[in-house]
Design goal:
This protein is an alpha/beta fold. The chain has 2 domains: about 180 residues, Glutaconate Coenzyme A-transferase (3-Layer(aba) Sandwich), CATH 3.40.1080.10; about 240 residues, 3-Layer(aba) Sandwich (Glutaconate Coenzyme A-transferase). The protein has 15 helices and 28 strands. Helix 8 packs parallel to helix 9 and helix 14 runs antiparallel to helix 15. The chain is globular.
């Protein structure tokens, strides 16, 4: 290791000393997903009461941060989320967290014209013999952030799995200004909840559309998990993976012999992803696994790359859909839930793929705690709703009551198709809504 080891010792410092570089008014990039720092978070939390107007950028938090415990936190900093998790969601209500609307594939490019990145803090693998720190399962956009930062601080965690690349998955020590060795905490895990009956019904309609040799992208949610479970129990073979988020379902399918990536004409034999989150077993599976390929999100989510892979199957979830075919996957009215992420990237890329298909899964109804049913097919959508997928891009819409292809459909054809997969209890009301806005013809089926 030689010179790298000497450089490592020169740059090694304590968390408290490292965060002294932060000053009021700074922008801080705070890692991403499981790469969010731990010891540096605690050290920064101790300093936060003496700082003002700190702007922090991160996303997909999987644990509560110490900085959020700062008294009157919003007076000292704001946290700007690339993709909102349950942890971040509750802090939107107290004025500490704000959302950054993006197409995820564009994120690395944003950094090219950002001049305000003062500090990057990120948790990484121990340095290798060639002087590189691997980002672990959080490649995403982190190299782009580090290239533009005035100061890069890495926090070494011996429990961080080494994610093989790809590209942009490792940071050379020459780009690092300060090194911190923390307490090597376990990585936060993400549990896979059992699919509900509705999710299974939706998955049952998608499953027959998946051919041997298909390349999969599974979004976050119970329905993609249900599809994964069906594939594991099926005769499908030689499936591939090119995805934004790598989850336990892919590991399970690999172990079941369903995923080989043998049919992929791009990154042959490799399962490509931008970041990963899941169980402890998933992190162990990722560690030094040559079958997997971590890459920056401007590659994994690039529409041109996705469309160049034959039989690309994209499965994502939505919250609401209206009679135009617009899908909201981010909000319930003004209440922020998630983010746009890469949904548009994969919806567009999968449709352009030879033999490819994009599925947006929206349960037709939600049932309140009091047992009251409300329709998730709405016209108009609730006030404050954000359109994640435009009506021109929606391909297959799937509910527990059916599946329809909206590509190339006129407004009246769309209205009829969408209402046909709504809960029957709401169809007459939806037809009346369609008539009010002049997208219903006399010849439409009721």
């Amino acid at each position: 290791m030689g010179d790298f080891e000497a450089e490592y010792k020169r740059k090694l410092t304590t968390p408290d000393e490292a965060v002294k570089v932060v000053k009021s008014g700074d922008w801080i990039d705070f890692g991403y997903n499981v790469g969010i720092p731990d010891a540096l978070d605690k050290a920064l939390a101790k300093r936060m009461p003496e700082l003002e107007d700190i702007k922090i950028r991160g996303g997909n938090l999987m644990r509560e941060l110490e900085i959020f415990k700062t008294p009157n936190a919003a007076e000292h900093f704001c946290y700007n989320s690339i993709h909102v998790s349950g942890v971040e969601r509750k802090h939107i209500q107290d004025g500490t967290v704000f959302y950054l609307p993006i197409r995820y594939s564009e994120l690395p490019g944003y950094y090219e014209y950002m001049d305000d990145i003062d500090v990057v803090m990120v948790q990484v693998c121990p340095m290798d013999k060639d002087g590189y720190f691997n980002f672990g399962p959080s490649t995403s956009h982190l190299m782009a952030a580090c290239k533009k930062a005035k100061c890069v601080i890495v926090e070494v965690n011996e429990k961080m799995p080494r994610a093989l690349g790809g590209f942009n998955e490792s940071l050379p020590i020459s780009m690092v200004d300060r090194i911190v060795e923390g307490d090597n905490p376990d990585l936060p895990t993400l549990s896979s909840s059992e699919p509900a009956e509705t999710d299974v019904k939706i998955a049952e309609q998608i499953f027959p559309m998946i051919p041997d040799g298909a390349c999969l992208q599974l979004g976050i949610g119970k329905t993609p998990n249900a599809v994964g479970k069906m594939i594991a129990e099926s005769d499908l073979k030689d499936l591939g993976v090119h995805t934004e988020m790598y989850v336990d379902a892919f590991m399970d399918l690999t172990k079941a012999g369903k995923i080989t990536c043998a049919e992929k004409k791009r990154d042959v034999g490799r399962q490509v992803y931008a970041f990963a989150a899941g169980s402890k077993q998933l992190y162990e599976f990722i560690d030094n696994n040559p079958a997997l390929m971590a890459a920056s999100v401007d590659y994994t989510n690039d529409i041109g790359v996705i469309s160049s892979i034959d039989n690309f199957i994209s499965i994502n979830s939505g919250i609401y859909v209206d009679l135009y075919g617009q899908v909201d996957a981010e909000t319930v009215g003004y209440r922020h839930i998630s983010g746009s992420g890469g949904q548009q990237d994969f919806v567009l890329g999968a449709y352009l793929s030879k033999g490819g298909k994009s599925f947006l899964c929206v349960p037709a109804v939600r049932v309140g705690k009091d047992g009251t049913k409300t329709s998730n097919i709405r016209m108009p959508m609730p006030e404050g709703s954000c359109m994640t997928c435009t009506r021109t891009n929606t391909n297959y819409l799937v509910t527990e009551f059916g599946m329809v292809n909206l590509k190339g459909m006129t407004t009246w054809e769309r209205a009829e198709k969408i209402i046909s997969v709504a809960d029957p209890d709401f169809r007459d009301e939806l037809i009346a809504d369609a008539e009010k806005i002049h997208i219903w013809r006399r010849s439409n089926k009721r």
